[in-house]
C-alpha cells in the first residue's frame, strides 16, 4: 500500500516548496494538502495533478493512516495540531519553532546530527530555524576537526523567511507602499529586528540561533552570540560567521574539512570576485561557504561567509531530508 503523507500549510511559502522538493525527489505517496479556511477548496498542481486543499481541523488526522505530516503553518497551528497528527500515528516533521527546544523532540539537520532521529518519543521531529540550519552544516565539520570555543553570528536574512507577507512587503515597498508585515519599510533598508524582542535585549530569532546551535551540535555550554538583520533580498540568507577554535589550524586544513562536508559547496575566489551571494544560492540546495580567512584578532580565529536558500535548505529541503532519512530507516 502507498504511504500517506499530509502537508499542513501547503499554500504558504514553505508549504509550496515542500511540494516542489517532494516532486524533485520523486517521493511517491498519497498526499493530502491542508491550509486554513481561506484557501480550502483551492487547487495546487503537484506531481502534474490538481490537488484540492482541505481546511485543517481537529478531525484531519484521526483514522486517516498518515505515516508522515509535514507542518509549516506557524507555531500556534503546530502546538495544537502536531500532537493530534502524532496521536493518529504520523511522524510529524515540524518547521515551526514550537517544539524545537523540547528535550524530548529531536532537532535535526541530517548532515549534522542524524543520530538524533533514533528516538522520537512524542512522534514529533523539529526542523531547525532557517539561519541555524545553514550555519551548523559547515560548523559541525569544523567543530569535529578543531573544537569550537565560541561563535559570533551576524545574519542578513531574506524577506521570504517572513512568509508570503514578508515577500509582499518588499514587492510593495519597492513601489512606495507602506509595510504591512515588518515594523519599518524593508525596501532600501536593513531592519535589525527579526521576531519579537526578549527581556535580555536579544530578538527571538537571535536566541533561536544560540539555543538551536547548542542543541544540534550537542554542545549545551557553547559560547554563541548572534545579531539577526532583515535585508531587502527575496531569497537566500547570508551570514558572517566568526569562530574561535580550541586547536590551531591552517586555512588549507579548513578548506579540506569543508570540501569533504556533505551539503557544503566552497565558493571562494576573491581575485575573480567569486564569493557566495543570495542571488546565486536562490533556487539551489547547497550551503555555500566563502570569504574564508583567519581572524588574527584572537587565538585560533576564523571568519567565513555562508549563504543558502532559506526556503530550501533552511526549511523545506531539510524537512524532506529528515523524512527521507526516516523512510530509509523503515526499510532496514
Ligand atoms: P492559508 O494560505 O489558507 O492562509 P506563509 O508562512 O507563507 O504565510 O504560509 C502560512 C501557511 O500556513 C499557509 O499555507 C496558510 O494557509 C497556513 N495557515 C495559516 N493559518 C492556518 C490555520 N488556521 N489553519 C491551517 N493552516 C493555516
Molecular structure report:
The chain has 332 residues and is an alpha/beta fold. Helices cover 30% and strands 24% of the residues. The chain has helices spanning 13-24, 75-87, 130-146, 163-174, 204-216, 251-259, 278-281, 312-330, and strands spanning 4-8, 30-35, 43-46, 49-52, 54-55, 66-71, 91-94, 124-126, 148-157, 223-230, 237-245, 264-266, 287-295, 301-308. The strands form three sheets. A six-stranded parallel β-sheet has the order 5-2-1-6-7-8, with helices on both faces. A six-stranded mixed β-sheet has the order 10-9-11-14-13-12. A hairpin with a 5-residue loop joins β13 (287-295) and β14 (301-308). α1 packs across α8, α3 runs parallel beside α5 (204-216) and α3 crosses α8. It is globular, with a radius of gyration of 20 Å. It starts with a strand and ends with a helix. The model has no long low-confidence stretch (mean pLDDT 98). Adenosine-2'-5'-diphosphate binds at residues 9-13, 15, 35-36, 38-39, 56, 73-74, 77, 163-165.
Provide a short characterization of the protein structure.
This protein is of the alpha/beta class and 332 residues long. It has helices at residues 13-24, 75-87, 130-146, 163-174, 204-216, 251-259, 278-281, 312-330, and strands spanning 4-8, 30-35, 43-46, 49-52, 54-55, 66-71, 91-94, 124-126, 148-157, 223-230, 237-245, 264-266, 287-295, 301-308.
Lay out the secondary structure.
Layout: E1 4-8, H1 13-24, E2 30-35, E3 43-46, E4 49-52, E5 54-55, E6 66-71, H2 75-87, E7 91-94, E8 124-126, H3 130-146, E9 148-157, H4 163-174, H5 204-216, E10 223-230, E11 237-245, H6 251-259, E12 264-266, H7 278-281, E13 287-295, E14 301-308, H8 312-330
Helix pairs in contact: 1-8, 3-5, 3-8
The structure holds adenosine-2'-5'-diphosphate.
Amino acid at each position: 500500500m502507498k504511504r500517506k503523507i499530509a502537508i499542513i500549510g501547503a499554500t504558504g511559502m514553505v508549504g509550496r516548496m515542500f511540494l516542489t522538493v517532494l516532486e524533485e525527489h520523486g517521493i511517491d505517496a498519497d498526499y493530502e494538502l491542508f491550509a486554513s479556511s481561506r484557501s480550502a477548496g483551492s487547487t495546487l498542481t503537484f506531481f502534474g495533478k490538481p490537488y484540492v486543499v482541505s481546511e485543517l481541523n481537529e478531525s484531519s488526522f484521526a483514522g486517516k493512516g498518515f505515516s508522515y505530516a509535514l507542518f509549516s503553518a506557524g507555531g500556534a497551528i503546530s502546538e495544537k495540531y502536531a500532537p493530534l497528527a502524532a496521536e493518529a500515528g504520523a511522524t510529524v516533521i515540524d518547521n515551526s519553532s514550537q517544539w524545537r527546544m523540547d528535550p524530548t523532540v529531536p532537532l535535526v539537520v541530517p548532515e549534522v546530527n542524524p543520530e538524533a532521529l533514533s528516538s522520537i518519543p512524542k512522534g514529533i521531529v523539529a526542523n531547525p530555524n532557517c539561519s541555524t540550519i545553514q550555519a551548523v552544516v559547515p560548523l559541525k565539520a569544523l567543530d569535529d576537526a578543531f573544537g569550537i570555543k565560541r561563535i559570533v553570528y551576524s545574519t542578513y536574512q531574506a524577506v521570504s523567511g517572513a512568509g508570503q507577507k514578508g515577500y509582499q512587503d518588499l514587492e510593495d515597498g519597492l513601489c512606495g507602499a507602506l509595510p504591512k508585515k515588518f515594523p519599518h519599510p524593508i525596501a532600501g533598508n536593513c531592519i535589525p529586528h527579526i521576531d519579537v524582542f526578549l527581556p535580555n535585549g536579544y530578538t527571538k530569532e537571535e536566541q533561536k540561533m544560540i539555543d538551536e546551535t547548542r542543541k544540534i551540535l550537542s554542545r549545551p555550554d557553547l559560547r554563541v552570540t548572534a545579531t539577526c538583520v532583515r535585508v531587502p533580498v527575496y531569497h537566500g540568507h547570508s551570514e558572517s560567521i566568526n569562530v574561535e577554535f580550541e586547536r590551531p589550524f591552517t586555512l588549507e586544513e579548513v578548506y579540506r574539512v569543508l570540501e569533504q562536508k556533505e551539503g557544503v559547496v566552497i565558493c571562494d575566489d576573491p581575485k575573480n570576485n567569486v564569493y557566495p551571494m543570495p542571488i546565486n544560492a536562490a533556487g539551489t540546495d547547497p550551503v555555500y561557504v566563502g570569504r574564508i580567512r583567519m581572524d588574527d584578532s584572537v587565538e585560533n580565529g576564523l571568519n567565513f561567509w555562508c549563504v543558502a536558500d532559506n526556503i530550501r535548505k533552511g526549511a523545506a529541503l531539510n524537512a524532506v531530508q529528515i523524512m527521507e532519512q526516516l523512510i530509509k530507516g523503515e526499510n532496514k
